[in-house]
Amino acid sequence: MAGVAVSTTINGDNVEYLCQPDETLLDVLRDRLGLTGAKEGCGTGDCGACSIILDDRLVCSCLVLGAEAEGRHVETIEGMAHGDTLHPLQQKFLEHAALQCGICTPGFLIAAKDLLAKNPDPTEEEIRFGLAGNLCRCTGYDKIVRAVQDAASVMKGA
Amino acid sequence: MRYIRPLSIEDAAGLLAGSAGTAAILAGGSDLLVRMKGGFIEPDLIVDIKAIDGLGEIRETADGFSIGAAVPCAVLGENTALQKAWPGVVEAAKLIGSKQVQGRCTIVGNLCNASPAADSVPALVAAGAKAVVVGPGTRRTIAVEAVPTGPGKTSLAKGEIIEAILLDKRLPRSGDAYLRFIPRTEMDIAVVSAGVNLTLDEQGRVKSARLALGAVAPTVILVEEAAEVLIGSKLDEATLERLAKVCSGACRPIDDKRGTIEFRRKVAGVLAKRAATTAYARAGGK
Questions:
Q1: Helix (DSSP H) and strand (DSSP E) numbers for chain B
Q2: What is the ipTM of this complex?
Q3: Residues A11 and A44 in one domain
Q4: Based on CB atoms within 10 Å of each CB, which residue in A52, A131, B90, B122 is the most buried?
């Protein structure tokens, strides 16, 4: 199979890669570019562990082909902290112990970032609804919701 | 496998028509990539239609709305003019999947995936929506209910692509609504669903009506007898009871793990009544 040459932007950096036409963006990120923050949970768009932001839209990178990223802007969990300074959501996830095994966490953080970008002051119900595409089998979600609420109030004050 | 991103709909149709093996159209990919992953389809050619001019846009025209084949459902939900004119279509499109899936999935994909339980399809059928079908050197406009012919099957010929969905300009005193039954609160496949679209006269009586049911037959069905029951009424209790009976009777459901035949028939009647009541209120009926 001939490779597809892709030129894209990932976390603000210009990136070029060759991928197979049937290769998902998730596999490109993890296996070709070493960006292993996005996780493969289900591979069928049900669990949200592979969430990324593609041109300001929250998507599952397992349901995007690597070839589709041509000319677009990709944001992954690796771009969330600024150097050693954590994003307020990351900080609040730590403070509220909103994670256990950690597999779902990058997806939750990306989805929560997208949620707060579009709705800076969400109700608990809006948070639960907004994060319903992300599955966590450890925490029971309450700590995640509280961490997002707390981060939202910090970010509003910032 | 080849991946091609043509810049015109004619090129896309030509590529699909000229392909030797299995060819697939890629818009949002929320069905296609899942089917590829599961080994249900191994395309020799993927035609990504997202770079085609205009396919990613919702246009408001003198005749109504034209929704391009590559418009994600999330964008439908953010379009206030569309939401105001066709709230039932928008609420149905917004029920498909999670936020992540909403960012990718399209109503044309939902239609062409041809699931009897597709959420946006009963609302589109009730709305009298049309599909613009482009093939190599051809262009035709057909009713959306003419697209699916059975589970996973459509009437589209090799090389044909749906370019856009057309919704009419709204007449005064009109409203539509979509409801589905699922065992969870969110993000599930409809066990039964109903879409209703009504236009009222100046006295608040139903002047025209369309009602479609989902997940109760091999395709979404337009229930013409339901329109006959509704027209001329103000949705009084007796009319709603007759509506429920007609809708239950129109079902040809299967028994499966999500619902029995008996359950689906009963719920179809209940959802038809409730969706009609909501559509009536949205049309300004009291």
A1: 11, 14
A2: 0.95
A3: yes
A4: B122
